[in-house]
Write a structure and sequence with these properties.
Blueprint: E1 2-7, H1 19-26, E2 31-36, E3 49-50, E4 60-61, H2 63-73, E5 79-89, H3 92-99, E6 103-107, H4 116-122, E7 128-132, H5 142-153, E8 186-187, E9 190-191, H6 201-219, H7 221-226
Parallel strand pairs: 1-2, 1-6, 5-6, 5-7
Antiparallel strand pairs: 3-4, 8-9
The structure holds adenine (ADE).
Adenine binds at residues 83-85, 132-134, 136-138, 141, 144.
Binding site for S-adenosyl-L-methionine: 109, 133-138
Keywords: Cytoplasm, Methyltransferase, S-adenosyl-L-methionine, Transferase, tRNA processing
Catalytic activity: guanosine(37) in tRNA + S-adenosyl-L-methionine = N(1)-methylguanosine(37) in tRNA + S-adenosyl-L-homocysteine + H(+)
Amino acid sequence: MRVDVVSIFPDYLAPLGLSLVGKAAASGVLDVRVHHLRDFTHDKHRSVDDTPVGGGAGMVMRPEPWDEALRTVAPEGARLIVPTPAGRPFTQALAAELAAEPRLVFACGRYEGIDQRVVDSARERMPVDEVSIGDYVLAGGEVAVLVMVEAVARLLPGVLGNPDSLVEESHVDGLLEYPVYTKPAVWESREVPPVLLSGHHANIVRWRRDESLRRTARNRPDLLDRLPASSFDDRDLSI
Ligand code: ADE
């Protein structure tokens, strides 16, 4: 997969060279290129922003450098992602969808955002998603891109050492993951739940499902409400 990121703070994206995403890049599964928006300006001050039309606080990113940047780095066949708190939610399902794309382009806005005409114009050439990573406001799209690229990269074939890790984890079946433990069996007088040491596979599966349900009810009751009745079995806890 090829990923291009356009930003006025390319250094913010340096962590894409580390850890899992960095290894994916080193192994050739992922090709990440970061571009400086100011390289697409032509005025003396390399300006990327201007005051909002209609008034209001802050600055808006100018359309000209953005349009030139996107026409240069986003060829046909790419999908454009614009991180913004005004976007659709970023979910595991969207991460899986993006992981199937050959080419992603991320446009990192700063200040009050990018002139909307850039997005509207790009939409005539390629699929565009405005995407939010949560109901809070960041200073710009760069951190959201780090989040999204990491979530997508770990789904690419060959990136995780053990692909079984992708099966039983939070948000895959609509529930949160059960708690996990490692050795020693007793640590500071706290025991690992005995069922996990029993070797009884069916009981372990049942216990993990119950814990998933309990945790989801406690931390994310909205997720339980969204699941169809058919996803529960008659031995599930009534929570
Ligand atoms: N830019 C600023 N806030 C954001 C958010 N919550 N998600 C994505 N991009 C953003």
